[in-house]
Amino acid sequence: MAKILVIDDEANLRKVLAAMLRRDGFDVTVAADGEQGLAEFNKNGADIVVTDLVMPKAGGMEVLRAVNAANPDVPVIIITAHGTVDSAVEAIKAGAFDYVTKPFDQAELSAVIAKAAKAHDVAQRSVRADAKARAAIIGESAQLQEVFKIIDKVADTPSTVLINGESGTGKELIASALHGASSRRDKPFIKINCAAIPHNLLESELFGYERGAFTGAVTSKPGRFELADGGTLFLDEIGEIPVEMQVKLLRALQEGEFERVGGIKTTRVDVRLIAATNRDLQAEIEAGRFRKDLYYRLAVVPIVLPPLRERRTDIPMLAGHFVEKYNRKLNKKIESISDDAMALLQAYNWPGNIRELENLIERVLLFADGPSITAKDLPEPVRQGSGTPAPALSAAPLEASTGEGGLKDIVRMKAAELEKDLITKALEETGGNVTRAAKLLQISRKSLQTKMKEFGLRDTTPPDGRDESIDE
Fold it and tell me: Most CB atoms within 10 A, among 197, 238, 374, 386?
């Protein structure tokens, strides 16, 4: 049950809103002004904030800025009178989720609240993006370095970018990094998940609508293209857009202009578009579900984001990052991940990618007792290497690999094979530099030397302990 904080200086309106939202199944807290509302938010938090725009002590914009600074994943909905709609639009550009006008239609407000609750739920399960998006992309693998090179080259251009990758790989982080590294960084970064919008509402969400355009359109409202003017529009799950809408989207991209639903005035905008999908759009084109001309317009700069199973050397760094994050969030004091646990994490195939890894680390920290995460703390699918087999682990049939050992022996053997392969690749990537290879693998230099000796990757160690392959 989502917790909603309602902030309004009109007592009757607070009562009406609270009663309506509680009837819809939400946990509601109310505050009489912005100052009181922020005190409540800082003390007890909220999943959604609904605030009046004009209030004594602290107005809606101040509430918006404070909530966004504290937790950008919390949607803020602005309530405004007709005379201050322009200010509400400015609030949207500053990061507000949406706005409704007084006197509001209860059905309209309920729909906005439901959409905000869904967006908050998605954000809680997604890889987080923020203003320092580039720094938030964790990893040093060769695959990720190639993605960074593309970002550096195209971020400050108007060219459209199409990000393709499986769910949970961090496509929104890449979009945020592109926006943050561009000259548009101080302009709006507007995001919309095309899969979360009903097909019959998608046009009005993208292009806005005029008053009276359809039942319930009691006032005019700008769309996401309009709100993103001067900045960046990120269309996630672009493959979900129906074919009939794709024609209108193509025109908006090519001409930089559109009309609101029910309107005749042409609106021109300057928007840099970034799209993302987990679908094979070439296959969608062959099936007649995606327009070829739109695809070529979107894929001026294609970025393919590799799944986590193809960048296993990044797993120690990602896992360490999530341990630090959830130590703070859950008030835990986990100091490390044991070598055997890390080997299992790197052997697992991660069908849910980075999102699955983050959720797993949070769950493990909740129940871990000791100062270190060990193999026994990991869930059974990870301990047993469940999931679609990774190529590195499927070199021989099961019968040929079992021998007299049981399942645990097989897992231990496969984990050792993968560990040897990862060390070999790290040494290749660093030209045999043990110090840098140890840093890449997120283990100590001494541990790496021990592992190298164990796997026969180095015959001798110099008497003085120095690594003769290092050129420092």
Answer: 238
